[in-house]
Amino acid sequence: MGLLMWIVFGALVGIVASSLMKSSNGLILDTLLGIVGAFLGGWIMSFFNKSGVTGFNLYSFLVALLGAVILIAVVRGIRR
Questions:
Q1: DSSP, residue by residue, 9-69
Q2: What is the pLDDT along the chain (80 residues), one digit of tens a residue?
Q3: Where are the domains of the chain?
Q4: Residue 53 half-sphere exposure, CB side, CA atoms within 13 Å?
């Protein structure tokens, strides 16, 4: 994926993850959260010998969403 697609993908994932976790971070932070979540989700999936984010598709969206939700939970744990 190109840079613009990563930004759009990250924004979508970040917004959905923030909605699921009931957190309000703003559009820019949600986008960064989605992008970092995609990398984290891909890294986690590599432990199960599965592919990470492979493009703009449902599987990649779910992998990135998993990573973003875990990232939100970790940040909440650190803040408390």
A1: HHHHHHHHHHHHTT----HHHHHHHHHHHHHHHHHHHHTTT-----SSSHHHHHHHHHHHH
A2: 678 888 888 889 989 999 999 887 788 888 888 888 888 888 998 889 888 888 888 998 999 999 999 998 988 888 88
A3: 3-79
A4: 27
Q: Which two tokens stand for residue 15?
A: 């917004």
Q: Where do we find the tokens 């989700």?
A: 41
